[in-house]
């Protein structure tokens, strides 16, 4: 992480801190069978992943979130501290765990126990806004999947917007119900940039197809970076396509966390004021690099 006072951007991340159990689904898997697979246990969670990559990019980074009082939580806290990340943490119960089921075709499924993440309240963000004084707040939308933190994420966005802090919002997951969608749209209205993948964008009703991108203007999004996986990304401003980028070739090992790397690079570019084409190319490049690693944080 860059040293404070050296002109590096100051970025606060609000999101989940999880331990990821990444398990490839064997070909021909059927319930009730026994299979051998290369299972990995990794540091993860949307907030943790974004903070990791921001620190690697040289940003002065802070994270607001929650970890358990168990050995996993202590280990994760030490890891973030080793990266120079400033921590605003609630410590309670057990650390969140997510099982990521990956498929050779690139599809993924997740089973999560939020654990301590239920205690990641907006009070932590308000404290960090006052103390850390970030230029950008990144909100990871998986907080919306947890009823305990859903509206805390909205309150965090409102607090940041009131202080003139730019907001980058990664919706985080596609299966939004009415309450999650209401919260997500409120955060998106306050955001400088949102970074959905195609399924998440459909949930937000920002893009039903490529021709309906102008609906982003209706929701008052300033910039939408639409993640399209191996096909790259597109950047829309007020509903107008302003940039496209394709990722460099990569030997894909694991796609879990690639979208978080994309968001980290985009947030860094927002903080330093880079132009749209540069922002998008940096984001797809870091996202592609993340796929070459066996764990989300490589």
Quick summary:
This protein is of the alpha/beta class. It has helices at 46-56, 71-82, 122-131, 150-162, 178-190, 198-203, 215-218, 258-272, 276-290; strands spanning 10-14, 18-24, 40-44, 60-67, 86-91, 96-102, 108-113, 136-140, 166-170, 193-194, 223-227, 233-237, 240-245.
Task: Explain how this protein is built.
The two termini are 15 Å apart. Helix 1 (46-56) crosses helix 8. The protein has helices at residues 46-56, 71-82, 122-131, 150-162, 178-190, 198-203, 215-218, 258-272, 276-290, and strands at 10-14, 18-24, 40-44, 60-67, 86-91, 96-102, 108-113, 136-140, 166-170, 193-194, 223-227, 233-237, 240-245. The chain has a single domain, classed as Ribokinase (UDP-N-acetylmuramoyl-L-alanine:D-glutamate ligase), CATH 3.40.1190. Helix 5 links the parallel strand 9 and strand 10. The chain contains nine helices and 13 strands. Mean pLDDT is 89; it is low at 206-220. Strands 5-4-1-8-9-10-11-12-13 form a nine-stranded mixed β-sheet, with helices on both faces. The chain has 298 residues and is of the alpha/beta class. The longest helix has 15 residues, at 258-272.
Keywords, separated by commas or semicolons:
33% helix
Helix content range: 25-40%
Low-confidence stretches: 206-220
Oligomer: single chain
Which second-level CATH architecture applies? 3-Layer(aba) Sandwich
Counting structural domains, the number is 1
Rg, rounded, reads 18 Å
**Beta-strand residue percentage:** 15-25%
**CATH homologous superfamily identity:** Ribokinase
Which topology does CATH recognise? UDP-N-acetylmuramoyl-L-alanine:D-glutamate ligase
Number of strands: 13
Number of helices: 9
Largest sheet properties: 9 strands, mixed
Q: N-to-C SSE series?
A: EEEHEHEEEHEHEHEHHEEEHH
Mean pLDDT: 89
The CATH class name reads Alpha Beta
Please give the order of strands in the largest beta sheet. Answer: 5-4-1-8-9-10-11-12-13
Distance between the termini: 15 Å
* Shape designation: globular
Going by helix content, strand content and strand pairing, the class is alpha/beta
């Amino acid at each position: 992480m860059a040293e404070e006072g050296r002109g590096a951007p100051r970025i606060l991340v609000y999101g989940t801190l999880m331990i990821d159990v990444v398990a490839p689904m064997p070909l021909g898997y059927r319930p009730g069978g026994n299979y051998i697979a290369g299972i990995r246990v990794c540091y993860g969670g949307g907030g943790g992943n974004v903070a990791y990559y921001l620190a690697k990019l040289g940003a002065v980074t802070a994270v607001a979130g929650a970890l358990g009082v168990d050995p996993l939580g202590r280990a994760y806290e030490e890891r973030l501290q080793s990266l120079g990340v400033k921590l605003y943490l609630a410590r309670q119960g057990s650390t969140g765990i997510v099982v990521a089921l990956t498929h050779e075709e690139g599809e993924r499924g997740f089973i999560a126990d939020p654990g301590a993440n239920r205690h990641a309240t907006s009070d932590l963000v308000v404290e960090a806004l006052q103390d850390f004084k970030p230029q950008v707040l990144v909100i990871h939308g998986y907080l919306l999947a947890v009823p305990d933190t859903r509206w805390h994420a909205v309150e965090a966005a409102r607090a940041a917007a009131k202080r003139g802090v730019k907001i980058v919002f990664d919706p985080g997951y596609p299966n939004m119900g009415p309450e999650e969608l209401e919260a997500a749209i409120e955060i998106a209205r306050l955001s400088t940039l949102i970074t959905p993948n195609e399924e998440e964008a459909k949930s937000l009703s920002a893009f039903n197809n490529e021709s309906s991108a102008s609906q982003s203007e209706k929701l008052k999004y300033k910039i939408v970076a639409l993640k399209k996986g191996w096909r790259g990304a597109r950047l829309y401003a007020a509903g107008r396509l302003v940039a496209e980028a394709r990722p460099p070739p990569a030997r894909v090992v694991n796609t879990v966390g690639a979208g978080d790397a994309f968001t980290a690079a985009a947030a860094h570019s927002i903080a330093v004021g880079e132009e749209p084409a540069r922002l998008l190319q940096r984001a797809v490049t870091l996202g592609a690099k993340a796929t070459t690693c066996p764990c989300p944080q490589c």
